[in-house]
Amino acid sequence: MIRVLVTDDDALVRAGLALMLGGSPRLEVVAEAGNGREALEAVRRERVDVVLMDLRMPEMDGIEATRLLQDEPEPPKTVVLTTFDADDYVVRALAAGADGFLLKDTPPPQIVEAIEKVVAGEPMLSPTVTSQLIRQVTDASGDDRSIDAVRLVEQLTEREHEVAVAVGTGQSNAEIATSLHMSLATVKAHISHIFTKLGATNRVQVAITMHDAGRL
User: Fold this and answer.
1) How far is the C-alpha of 65 from the C-alpha of 206, rounded, in Å?
2) Rounded Cα–Cα distance for residues 65 and 98 (Å)
3) Stated pTM of the model
4) DSSP bridge pairs for 78
5) Running DSSP on this structure, what letter comes out for residue 99?
6) β-strands 27-33, 50-54: how paired?
7) Are 111 and 6 members of one domain?
8) Nearest CA to 153 among 189, 188, 194?
9) 115 and 141 co-located in one domain
10) The domain boundary residue, chosen from 88, 120, 152
């Protein structure tokens, strides 16, 4: 069972999401939170695999909560919920460590599928959306940022570099395994090493670093 925390300042939205997710035999909603501070408390109290995180909330918004969740000993995956496709809040949340985002009007079966994907380490964003986000994040990139990215990327082995490029282009683990003739387990191991070496917590951050280093 995948244990889910639903975070939204609208009680009706929380109830609707909890009811919908509770209908899946693979998911269990273990807690709800009305703001980012309550979400942090719930994660520390419960074993949570995935946090569905609203962005605009009182007391502590979803961006700050997402950033703070990365400091937890075993941070859950974070999927931000938004009414706007790839707006500035989403970009900032992904930069803070969110693993993907969902529009609030996404059909229930697709929300369940997205949660399962993010737990499996699969990309939550299409290549097109990833490209849009990279452009938004890197429009203001300076020389220092590029230098730092090059330094990080130089730590990668040749094979890790190939996998990082594939991640940056939006390929799933299965697609990377096929294109680079690896087993799925080997791809996952490489991605884990890449995250560590690049200081990344999600695939978008890997893509941004590879872009800044001139590898995409």
Assistant:
1) 21
2) 10
3) 0.77
4) 51
5) -
6) unpaired
7) yes
8) 194
9) no
10) 120
